Structures are given as structure tokens and as C-alpha cells.
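The instructor's notes for this session suggest beginning with a concrete chain rather than abstract definitions. Hand out the sequence below and ask the class to guess, before any prediction is shown, which regions might be ordered.
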Amino acid sequence: MENSNTSALEIQNFKGKYPKQLWYLFFSEMWERFSFYGMRGMLVIFMVSQLAMNDKVANLQYGATQAFVYAFTFIGGLFADKILGYRKSLFWGGLLMIAGSIILAINPQQFFFFGISFTIIGTGFFKPNISTIVGKLYKDDDHRRDAGFSLFYAGVNLGALIGGYICIAVANGSLWASLVPAHLRWNVAFGFAAVVMIVSLLTFTQTQKSLGDIGLSPLKDAPSTKRKRLEIVTYIGSLLIIPVIMTMVSNTDYTDIFMFIIGPASLLYLFYEMRSFNKEENKKLLAALVFIIFSIFFWAFFEQSGGSLSLFAAHNLNNTLLGIPLDPNGVNNSANSFFVIAFAAIVGLVWLWLNKRKLEPNTVVKFGLGFLFLAGGFAVFYYTKFFADANGRTSLDLFTFGWFIITFGELCLSPIGMSAMTKLSPQKTQAVIMGMWFLASAYGQYFAGLLGANIAEASTNASNLEKLSVYADGYKQLAIYAFIAGILLILIAPFVKKLMQDVK
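After discussion, reveal the predicted structure:
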């Protein structure tokens, strides 16, 4: 077992396909994602059924909530780079997420936005930093990195699979209905998120023992009084901002203002940091920005899963998959994760196999392929309209096949993107760049809410069959846009590859 005196270089000189620390981080992330995706899958349905919001408002609120979650990953990455280090940031974030989940479990109807605010800030400290730690397990030129992130991504999705199905199915009463009283279903569902987050944090406390000097505070050599003072200020400041977050999340007008500010502000900060880097490093950062910008569009489409697709599943899907009765919203929340688990490691090994034969596509082309798969999946969602009955209910089998196709798009983009961020960013700004990667997800979530709200508004006062047609036509448009983005990425691949230089 390594101690804190073990250098990162010693850890990076591992034998085999994966470093042992990756497996520890795999399980910590798995339980955290159970908590996160379990809650995410419940948001829209909870707001419609328990808070009496209409479909349009619920979509906007969902987009706002998720946007703040991912926007704060940039801030969490910034504080990790400058003050706390990756480990303390991650641990503090986990504590805040536990607190938020407990608040929601006690009384979700009354304390919804209060509990969500804790979760938002907690995820901001947790999410970018565990991904950065994974990147630190590899040398910059280690071709095994993409495969490692693909395996890590399988952990993400194992948690999402279990949490995404169990939480909403318990809340809807389609799972363990005899064990959970009807009036406590939502409390228990949110309670699951708290319990598994505790498990995640306990797992990480053991993980730290094997990380050597990876993730320690950048101020570890500074006077202890100065370091502790800055850490305490960070902790107190993150608590004091909770009422502000609560106000902004509950009013989507404030969300609009925040999103107009945070993106340009992060870019200005990056350009400020770029002054201290050389020409080659700045070219790599520009390449990273290309990936970040395109990922916004990818997530805006993909994240219909928690918004419009949740309502589509509730209203327009039957409840049998391959003849097995299943909660359609549970399937919507977990199908993608199931397929990622099944194929992530295989896709990672395919990259390694192609690399050995010098046939592996570069990162830009992988991104382009991601969009083409995304287009194919939404095209399938569109075609579900042709299999509907008179009540506007259509095939859960076909819908699930759409998620099967989209999964390969996600595997071409998300783990590859995380890996690229760690390869393209200079050492001292890696957590900030990873934060910007997740900030792109914030904008994706934000635009996902707007897109979902537009679709929902178009179907207002329509019959269930008419709603199906409106939603399906909306997904057809998204398929077309995703296809165009994919082709564009493949066309500009040579230009972006020049910016990336030696990074594959």
C-alpha cells in the first residue's frame, strides 16, 4: 500500500491495462452516480406530480437545476486547483450531497429547492475532481488512458443504472409497493440517494491510502495557518451561497442571467491563465475549447432523457420490454446506463486493438461519430410514432433500441472527452479545464430544458396521440441537427488535429 510519500510517477508506472487505483475510484464514483442519477430521474416527475408544475415549467426547472449542478463543477475545479486539492474538494462535496439528500428524504415537498441546493454545490466539488484524479493515474503519453476512462465510465453508468431505475420505480409505486407505504414513497426514494452517497464517501476514504501524492492540496508546502484559513473560508463560503443558489434555482429567470454570465466569465478566466502558457500549450487549449463547444450541443440533445423524454415515457410508452413488465420511466433513466456497462469496456478494448494496428481514429473523428450515433438514436425515437395505438402508447422495445444506438455515441464522446481534457490542459489548470468540460454539460442541460419546454408547450391541450406526434417530430429535428454536427466535426478534424499536435 502506497503512502503520501509515493510519487505520482511510481503509480503511473503500473503494469497491465489498468492501474489498481482505477478500480477503487470506479466504486466510489459508482455509488455517487447512483445518488445523482437516482435524483435526476425523479426531478421532472416529482415536480409535475408533487409540486403541481405543468410540463413546460417542469422542463425549465429541470434544465435550471441540472445547469447549476454542472456549472458548479467549474467552480469546484477552480477551488481544487487553487486551495483544497482534488481530495479535500471531493470529500467536502460528498458531505454536502449527503446533507442535501437527507433534507429531501425528510420532506421533499417542503424542502425541495433547499435540498437540491446542497446537492448542486456538493456535486460541483465532487464531480470534476474524481475525473481529474483518474487522469493523474496516467502519464501524458500513455495510450492506455482512453481505455481507463472508458472503464471508469462504466462505473459511472453502473451507478446510474441501479439508481436511475430503483429511485423512480419506488417513487412511482411500481417497485416494492408492498414494502413502502404510499405516502412515504418519495421520502424513501430520496433516502436511497443519501445512503449510497455515504457508501461512496467511505469508499473514497479507503481509496486515498493508495493515491500517494496525487490530489493533495496545492498549498501543502505553504504555512499551515494560511492553508487552513483559506480552506475554512472555502467551506464557509460554499455554505453561505446556498440561499443564493436556492433563490436562483427556484426562479428560472435568475438561471438565465447566471448562464449568460458564467460561460463568458470562465472563458475570460481561461484566456487570463493562457498568458502564462507557451504557444504550443495554448494551441492545445484551443483544441480543448472546440471539444467543449461541440459537447454543449451533444448534451442539449442527450439530456432530453431527464426532461422531455421523462414525460414522453410517462405518457406515451407501454410498460413491457421484451415481454417483461417494467416501469417505462425507469427504463428511460437506466437503459443507456445498462448499454454503457455492457459495451464500455469492449469499446475501450476496440480502441486499444485499433491503436496497435495504427487504425484508431483521432479524438475529433470519435466526437463526430458520437454525433452520428446520437442522430440515429433520435431518428428511432421519431419512428416510434408509427407504432402507436389509439391511446398514443407506443413501443418500449423500439424506444429502448434508440437508447442502444445513442449509447455508442456517448461512448465515442464522453469518456474520450474527459480523457482529452486531461491530455490537452497544462498541469496547473487541469481541474479548471475539467470544470469547463462539465460547464459545457451545464449549458447542454440548460438548453435541454429550453428545448424540452418548447416541445411541451407545442403539445399543450393536445390528446395523448397528438402529444406523441409533437414529441416525435421534435426528436426528428434533433436527429437532423446532430447529423449535421457530426459531419462538420469530421470535416474539420485535420485542422483541430494540428492544434492538438502530439495528442492523439
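Then share the key points. The chain has one domain: 15-500. The beta strands are 320-321, 324-325.
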